[in-house]
Design goal:
The structure is a single chain. By secondary structure, the protein is α+β, with helices and mostly antiparallel strands. Helix content is 48%, strand content 9%. The chain folds into two domains: 3-447, no CATH class; 576-674, Sandwich (Immunoglobulin-like), CATH 2.60.40. It is built from 26 helices and 15 strands. The protein has a five-stranded mixed sheet, with no helix packed on it. It is elongated, with a radius of gyration of 28 Å.
């Protein structure tokens, strides 16, 4: 087996286990799993008790084991696997089969976008995992009686704030994924849609068995470290495509309250052991040890205190005016709206983040109550009770594998970032060295607070930016276009820049800049200077080129042109690459052709780009390329002003240069190597 084969095998094994999320219910699973089973008193009682068992018998390291599939879970994948008609949803090969099929049908351009997202989200994703440690450490301190002087216990406001910050990161990750998935859906060909449609409504055993070898060439070409994320995204793409809002809202009973080590108990023995079987009733049977006194582990009064959490959390979970189920429904509905149109994506993002903050508040308050009750019950346990509970843990987490190898994972000896061992524990110091603030003592260390995801940093630059910065260092489409409007130079350069904003994938942008786009007139100002042109095109040309307008007013000016003269045929959209030509009459002259710019750089993982063609209305032009790794996505001929859309393929070797010839002009693409 060569190195590539080993790499593929490793990420498949990692994927099959670390995203393996097992739903737990108090009784055998019903025919159709939905949210009503999740929030039922029975499922919640045993799930909360199981978390208490994990907390009372474990340690901080065990608490840190956490399936990454619990982050940004609004695509219905959990519903898909819990309702698989083949009853293979909880087999370690389930996600692999879904993902392999999607990757098999995606083209290089679509796959490159997933890889770019994986790279862009890595810092945010890791930050989410690291920031969990503050809450986990505080909950452990409460359990151990290590309460700072001057405090009587956890501070509710501080716990809610820490939880809110986590969910804001989750909201950002969720939005970015949904926006990219929606973009990929809009680019699916009829053949690709037919392939996915053939999988809808069926189960694991009916789906094509696409092997790892069949997608190995695609996976081995991905940027280092992105394979698992790309597989996750691929599975999300299918579940979202095949699902519904109800499926997106659905979650397992253990989706809330994830800080106590229950996932470690269930999953640790399975990691690295393909085919290992996890008892689907484990949470229910083991959890009953703390909520059912007839099992012989706790007294009736201790079981009653543990069970009281079911009612304590009820309003925040589903019964209150503002509750987790309703918030998830709103978020899922907003994200799914992107499938219809991304035109209002900025508004969707703002609402998703606001709702995610509320979600964090609700879950934070619930976890404050969980941790408090777990500590309360633990303090009343006798030595004999603790011994019996520890023995129960050991019986679950030790045994013999099919090959005869003995195992015992009852004591966790390493911390985890999700399911990966953290080898250098010093990275945790900023998050666990001082958690007094979660007990109401002092303030949170600056390293643990979050206002925006860690990968998003801003740097203020002068009023005028350069073209490349506008495209590669802005947060989203509106910021990019504001940046373009403030470019020095002529109107054509600004137009070309804005056109590229419309199709640029912002998920891989870094080193974000803020643009000072001053506005004097605002949206309701007097733009008669330009509207007097009499046509929409003349009006917009004036908006783009007039030296009398501040750059922040250019977009308001164009909006006024749209309002007066109607939607322009030259407005860029992200729905599909097309060549659209201006209807503006240009005086007769010799046919000449110029380009909005003459060169562009592309990352190693590929790029979709656009170049503006500027020519007289009666002049015909043709575009072509002899570079094998450059593909023209739009019509290669046009008349007058227009655009050429192109795709730059993934580059696994050294830096390279290619060209597109447009009329008598040369457009150069410089692609970085790996």
């Amino acid at each position: 087996m060569n190195k590539t084969d080993l790499t593929i095998k490793r990420y498949v094994l990692t994927l099959g286990i670390t995203l393996f999320v097992l739903c737990a219910f108090a009784a055998p699973a019903p025919a159709v799993m939905d949210i009503s089973q999740t929030i039922s008193d029975g499922a919640q009682r045993t799930t909360l008790a199981f978390s208490g068992l994990a907390m009372m018998t474990g340690n901080l390291y065990a608490q840190s084991f956490f399936p990454p599939g619990k982050v940004a879970d609004y695509t219905g994948f959990q519903y898909l696997r819990d309702n698989d008609p083949s009853d293979m949803g909880h087999n370690t090969s389930f996600l692999t089969r879904v993902a392999n099929n999607v990757i098999y049908t995606l083209n290089d351009s679509q796959l490159a976008r997933l890889a770019a997202l994986a790279t862009a989200q890595q810092d945010q994703f890791n930050l989410y995992g690291y920031k969990r440690f503050g809450l986990m450490k505080a909950f452990r301190r409460l359990m151990d009686g290590d309460i700072p002087s001057g405090s009587t216990g956890l501070d509710l406001a501080a716990v809610k704030q820490a939880s809110r910050e986590l969910y804001l990161i989750d909201g950002q990750i969720s939005f970015d994924r949904a926006l990219l998935y929606a973009t990929i859906y809009s680019s699916l060909t009829s053949t690709q849609k037919a392939y996915l449609d053939a999988m809808k409504g069926k189960g694991w055993s009916s789906w094509p068995d696409i092997t790892d070898d069949q997608i190995k060439s695609k996976m081995s070409a991905l940027p280092q470290g992105s394979a698992v994320a790309v597989m996750t995204y691929a599975s999300d793409i299918f579940s979202w495509y095949a699902g519904s809002v109800d499926a997106d809202v659905y979650f397992c009973p253990e989706r809330q309250g994830t800080y106590y080590g229950g996932f470690y108990i269930k999953d640790a023995p399975a990691v690295g052991h393909e085919g290992y079987s996890i008892d689907e009733q484990l949470t229910a049977t083991a959890g009953s040890a703390l909520c059912d006194s007839s099992k012989g582990y706790v007294t009736a009064s201790q079981a009653a205190v543990m069970s009281s959490l079911v009612d304590t959390q009820k309003n925040n979970l589903y019964a209150g005016t503002i509750n987790i189920v309703s918030v998830r429904t709103q978020i899922a509905t907003l994200l799914r709206s992107l499938l219809t149109s991304t035109a209002s994506s900025d508004s969707v993002k703002a609402q998703v983040l606001a709702l995610s903050g509320t979600y964090g508040d609700l879950d934070g308050e619930n976890n404050y109550n969980y941790a408090t009750v777990f500590a309360q019950v633990y303090k009343t346990l006798t030595t004999d009770q603790k011994t019996k509970l520890a023995a129960l843990r050991k019986s679950i987490m030790s045994g013999t594998y099919a090959d005869g190898t003995a195992f015992d994972y009852s004591v966790c000896t390493t911390p985890f970032l999700y399911s990966e061992v953290i080898k250098d524990t010093s990275v945790l110091d900023p998050y666990i060295s001082n958690t007094d603030y979660l007990f109401g003592i002092g303030t949170a260390p600056s390293s643990t607070t979050t206002t925006v995801p860690a990968s998003i940093t801003t740097t203020t630059i002068p009023d005028s930016a350069d073209y490349a910065s506008c495209i590669n260092n802005t947060l989203d489409n509106p910021a990019c276009k504001d940046c373009c409007d403030c470019l020095d130079g002529d109107a054509n350069a600004r137009k070309s820049c804005r056109d590229e904003c419309a199709v640029h994938d912002f998920s891989h942008n870094t080193d974000f800049i803020t643009i000072n786009a001053p506005s004097k007139l605002g949206p309701d100002g007097d733009y008669s200077l330009c509207t007097a042109g009499g046509t929409e095109q003349a009006c917009k040309d004036c908006c783009d080129g007039s030296a009398e307008l501040l750059c922040g007013d250019r977009r308001y000016c164009r909006d006024r042109c749209n309002a007066l003269f109607g939607a322009s045929s030259t407005t860029s959209t992200t729905s599909a690459p097309q060549v659209t030509t201006s209807t503006t009459t240009i005086p007769d002259a010799a046919c000449t052709c110029t380009l909005g710019r003459t060169a562009v750089s592309a990352p190693a993982f590929g790029k979709i780009g656009i170049v503006r063609v500027i020519s007289h209305s009666e002049c015909e032009w043709t575009a072509s390329t002899a570079t094998p790794w450059i593909t023209l996505l739009s019509r290669a001929t046009g008349t007058g002003n227009g655009f050429i859309w192109f795709w730059v393929a993934l580059n696994n070797s050294a830096a390279r240069t290619g060209t597109i010839t447009i009329a008598d002009q040369t457009f150069t693409i410089n692609q970085r190597g790996r």
